[in-house]
Amino acid sequence: MKLQQTTVDDSGAISEKNGIVSMDKNFAGPLFMLSAALLFTIMSILVKQMDPRYSVWHIGFFRFAGGAVILLALFGRHGNIYKGNNIPLLIIRGCTGSIAFIAAVTAIRILPISTGVVIFYSFPVFAAIFAAIIYREKIGIPQIICMLLVMTGIAVLFDFNLAGKLFGQCMALLAGAFAGLTVTLIRSLRENNGPAVIYLYFCTMGAVVTLPMFINSPVTPATPVEWVMIWGMILTSLTAQLLMNQGFFYCRGWEGGVYMSSETIFTSIAGIVFLKDPISWRFWFGSALILGCGIAMNWLKSRQ
């Protein structure tokens, strides 16, 4: 009889059995999600710090094309990675996700990074609305109250100053709306498609959408620092996406949403400390309403 060898670390979070390392789900879920949120924060900072000669279309094309190239290099040798289930919906999801990213980058480039990310995290409200439209899910009174409070938080963050950042605020809200639609569509796709296929269609459609504007006014990195920033944006976004997808294997959907909302905390700290973002009562009060009610909506959904 072959003896089994099992070792456990001091915390009990990581164990090894017969040479196979496993992680406790209570440790793995938060680890993957918080790591993804931190990497998304780094990506946002890199986008914010890029030279002004890089437009939204340039940034989008580099991110999408670079992500597609890496995925094809990693998984393409095993067969046709574009072979998926429900191709039309994969294409639609790719387009909606691309619009969300382009709108979010526009907002981040215009607004203080902390404000842009907080408004973007209103997407649970739009996800609930699209779920009611597409899947006929009922929206209860508690969810309606949360949605109204989230919209109140958005109204607080909007100063409605036509001479200021209204366009950037509207783009952040548009990004949240399309992100909510994208999250809703993924529910139908993930049943028969792996995360790599879904993400590849996202990158491919994004590259197709941004390519015409990129060709119209091409820009290439001129210094080693610019190359590092562009590849940093590509790698952090790809790694964060894969970590987030893996994290959902270890925690429930609403828990993952709560952990991912920590991106707003990381981004706000980075924006205030390093980028000198302005802070006021509008930011703190509006952020508390949006994040608090977004977390509550995820929890209420898990109770259904």
From TrEMBL:
Membrane association type: Multi-pass membrane protein
Residue ranges annotated for the EamA domain, each copy included: 29-158, 167-292
Keywords from the UniProt entry: Membrane, Transmembrane, Transmembrane helix
Transmembrane segments: 27-48, 54-75, 87-111, 117-135, 142-160, 166-186, 198-215, 227-244, 256-275, 281-300
Entry annotated with the keyword Metal-binding: no
Gene Ontology terms: cellular component: membrane
InterPro entries, alphabetized: EamA_dom, EmrE-like
Subcellular location: Membrane
Name used for this protein in its record: Putative permease of the drug/metabolite transporter superfamily
